[in-house]
Amino acid sequence: MTAKSIVPLTREQMAWRAAQDLREGDYVNLGIGIPTLAASFVPKGREVIFHSENGILGMGPKPEPGKEDPYMVDAGKNKTTLVPGGCFVHHADAFLMIRGGHLDVSLLGAFEVSETGDLANWTTEDPAFPPGVGGAMDLAVGARAIRVIMEHTSKSGEPRILKACTYPLTAAACVKRIYTNLAVIDVTAQGLSVVEMIAGMTLEKLQTMTEPKLQLAPDWQVLAPPAAPEARAA
Amino acid sequence: MIDKQVKTTADAVAGVRDGSTVLVAGFGAVGVADHLLDALHEQGARELTIVANNSGNGDQGLARLINSGRVRKVICSYPRSGDYSAFLNAYRSKSLELELLPQGTISERMRCHAAGLGGFFSPVSAGTKLGQGKETREIDGRLHVFEKPLKGDVALIKANKADRWGNLTYIKSARNFNPVMAMAADLTVVEVDTMVELGELDPEAVVTPSIFVDRIVVVGAHA
Questions:
Q1: What is the pLDDT of residue A231?
Q2: Is the four-CA dihedral A51, B101, A70, A90 of positive or negative sign?
Q3: Which of A27, A79, A185, B35 is exposed most, by the fewest CB atoms within 10 A?
Q4: Contacts of residue A142 in chain B, CB cutoff 8 Å?
């Protein structure tokens, strides 16, 4: 590997980076997929409270083998746990928390994000299958900060940060920050601002993989997570 | 003496009519009244509209009702969960209608009916495909869509403990849709793990108060 090679972040590294922005005392909902991984990368000693749409406030890590509780599932229907201090609410109250602005952060996966923060993450309109929306639209409007974790480009290399989303919208103008495997980008009133890029990346190169115009934040930094972030029980 | 306990699951679902709207609680496989769904299958009501978060799994419960052609319409947020082949086959053959709603909108519409309100404006789905055709209003500079209350003719509820009045407690995340659905139907039918004596449930711990409950049947503990 030469010094100039550019190595995109792994899923764990993307989740690690997003987790660093969660503050002590934040109430956070993590979407299914890479966002779920963020729970285990919250810095040690920082207390973050995780919310699950099916009525858990204070969700813990996945259970140890053999200690699964049939009454404890997360939004993806995977077995989960409760932390000390956690509690249960019924479904309408779980969504009251989401919709009513009570959550500090909603960390979501996405297919596409537009330069104005429009989010598309619920359907690709595959005619062979029924659509499913789950809590995606609720999560995209309610939290104080909506952030997205996604690969910078599609599998075929097409940009996923676009001037306008091509897939149906989940919500308009909601995303404030995007964590990709190449950069951290803020959606601002003045446009997309690159606040971090991985080592070796240049704005010019990043621009070729991004449809709308990017600006480099004056105080931008190198995005350099640990090579293999250490996961711990959240 | 008030006693809402009935002997069998067949007694519990007796009288459910063709064309009924049935609220089916649960999230995935957790907190689902499986015995009552089986009893409803035996009971034979047809042309049902089902309100649920998911669309059934395998060939049990809701999936079995769908496979038997009893379901005309499903109102849900996420049909693509687990082995949803029963729903998928019916959906592809167009023998069943899907009304897709954001998850929080489903529960809030039911709570709205329970609270005697005529509807509410929500920012969720405003400006999206799922908001199309709905009345809109800009409130404090933000677009909202109007959502109508959603009422069940019957609710099928899974609880942990009940007393003879119908006070209910739940276990952990198996609570999910149960309390809100229990409030939102004309006939609320509950399957429980155990019955306890009146006064035995800690009044501070009762989640669904008896006023919302009509019939209770004991099915024993199961996961």
A1: 85
A2: positive
A3: A79
A4: 124
Q: Is a pLDDT exceeding 50 seen at residue A3?
A: no
**pTM for this entry:** 0.95
Is B171 an 8 Å CB contact of chain A?
Answer: yes
* Nearest one of B110, B88, B151, B175 to A132, comparing CA atoms: B88
Of B191, B160, A54, B154, nearest to B168 by C-alpha is B160
Give the integer Cα–Cα distance in Å for A191 and B116. Answer: 45
With beta carbons under 8 A apart, name residues in chain A contacting B77. Answer: 132-135
Check if A85 contacts B (Cβ < 8 Å).
no
> Which chain A residues are closer than 8 Å to B130 by Cβ?
133, 137
Domains defined along chain B, listed by start: 18-100+151-217 (3.40.1080.10)
Sheet order of strands, B136-139 included: B120-122, B142-147, B136-139
Q: What pLDDT is stored for residue A44 in this prediction?
A: 93
Task: Say whether pLDDT at A230 is over 60.
Answer: yes
Mean pLDDT of chain B: 96
> To which H or E segment does residue B74 belong?
strand B71-76
Q: Among all residues of A, which ones are annotated catalytic?
A: 53
**Nearest-5° Cα angle at A28, A153 to A231:** 70
Interval B159-163 mean pLDDT: 98
For domain A11-217, the CATH class is: alpha beta
- Per-residue confidence band for A234, with pLDDT thresholds at 50, 70 and 90: low
Identity at B106, one-letter amino acid code = I
The residues spanned by each domain of chain A are: 11-217
How is A65-99 classified by DSSP, letter by letter?
A: TT---TT-B-TTS-B--EEEEEEE--HHHHHHHHH
